[in-house]
Each structure stands twice: as structure tokens, then as C-alpha cells.
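PROTEIN FOLDING TASK:
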Amino acid sequence: MLRNGHWLLAATLALSFTAAHAEVKPKVDKLDEAPKVALYIGNSFFYYNNSLHNHVLKLANAADPAAHYKATSATISGSGLNWHDVESLFSTAGMASYSFVGDNEVVMNTRNKKFDAAIMMDCSQCPVHPQLKSLFGESVAKDAEIVRKHGADPVLFMSWAYADKPEMTEQLADAYTTAGNANDMLVIPAGLAFARARKEQPDLVLNVEDKRHPTLAGTYLAACTVLASVYKRSPVGNPYHAGLDDKTAAFLQNVAWETVQDYYRK
């Protein structure tokens, strides 16, 4: 048993430790409006399981069928943000300049503003890696400026910790939130949703064998978190379950919604 003085010292040290590791809070908690057309810029964390953007679209269009949301994804395996030429993605002659509809019919797209938002993530370690974290900050600032120049909202996607490195959760959360605050960007707290799901249901597998990339459940959780943060729609009760059983889908929907509410709470 600790004497009173020792107990007070221990309590003070515990409080100091907690304060020193407190999560950075986001400045931006919503976009002015949900993006009708979104661009995802990232790597294999996005394109696993038939691409994150497809699952987000199915959730968003199920929640609001009249909206007809659209999205496309530009991904490079293993890439960091600095691998992407974001300016070229907004070129009228390049990305999304045409679409295939019906029986292989090509339709040329003439929309003046191609994308309403660009959802971006760095490589899985880049924001916290000693040699790359400064490049992360530089890339976010540069790309946010390019996206805004083209009339779209830049958004950061907070990635998740490796399954065997849970300490990455807080590190990535602070890095993404700090970068988002510095550039007045919305941040999607997917990494925090993964950590919450692991804590509440440890037996649910969110990563494949490499402990990094997402299982279908992981991708679905990330998609629900995007729906809740970018589209401001609760995923709870959404009929799209991505082929997951109803119980698992309901659990992930609730985790995503609760994580977003907690993250943006002032």
C-alpha cells in the first residue's frame, strides 16, 4: 500500500503521462456539403477488397438513393502521397474524362468541376516514420492547395495501426489530426475505428495475414467511417452489408458511428 505522499506522486505522474499522450482534437468536423463526386488518392489500403470507394458509394447511395453519388480511385501500390501527381488527376483530359455505360458505350464527361472532394492517405508508416514524417507534412500542404485550386475539398484519411503494433494508433491519429488542423482539412478517423473495434471485439479479424492490409470487415469498417464523417450519414441500420453477416455489419456500423461522434466532439 502506498503512503499518502507516494500515492499523490503516483497519481500526479499518471495524470501527466495521460496529458502528454492526449489525442489531438480536430478543428474541422464537417464539409460544407457531401461530395457528389469524390476522388480517392492512396495505395493498396484503398484498393483491397474491390476498393474502398465502391463500398462507400454503396453505403452512401443506399442512405440517399436520390443523390446519385459517384467516386473514382487513383492508387499506387505501396505509395506515399508524394508519389502522386495530384495536379494531373484534375486534368480535364485525364482522370474521369470518360466513362463506360450500358453495353460498353463510352460517354465523354463534360462536368466543369470533376471532383467535389479528394480523400487522401499517405503510406501506412509515412506520417510517423522518422525519415518520412516531415515529407508527409509537406505533401499534405502541397496537395491540399492543389485540390482547393480546382474547387474541391481536400480530406485526409487516417489509416490504422498494424495488427501487431497497436502503438501506431495514437501516433497516426495525432499525425493526421495535426496535419489536418494545419491545413484546415477534415480528417476521417478510420484508424481510431479499427482500434475501437479491436478493443470491443478482439476475435473479429480486421487485417489479412500480413497484419497490415484490411480484410473485407476492415474495408467495410473504413467505409462506414467515411460515410459517417464525409457524408454525415449514420451507417447504423444501412442495408448494405458488403456480404458480411448481419451481426458483424451491425457491430461495425455502430463502431464507425460512435468513433466519429467521439472524435469530432469538442
Summary: Residues 1-22 have pLDDT under 50 and may be disordered.
